[in-house]
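To whoever picks this up:

The nightly regression suite flagged Plant PDR ABC transporter associated domain-containing protein as changed. Nothing in the input moved, so I suspect the structure step. Input below, exactly as stored in the fixture:
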Amino acid sequence: KNTDPTIDAPTIGKALLKSRGMFTHEYWYWISIGALIGFSFLFNICFVLALKYLN
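Regenerated output under the current build:
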């Protein structure tokens, strides 16, 4: 539970994110997970292509 009256957030985690100017809506968590998975696939594919090119 957030006990800081200056930040309007229900939890300490959301209060910390809000105090640092980050997004606190739930859909941003899923967007970040999707971006993480997408970039993992992208960089792995690029790495494989670079290895094939250097062979």
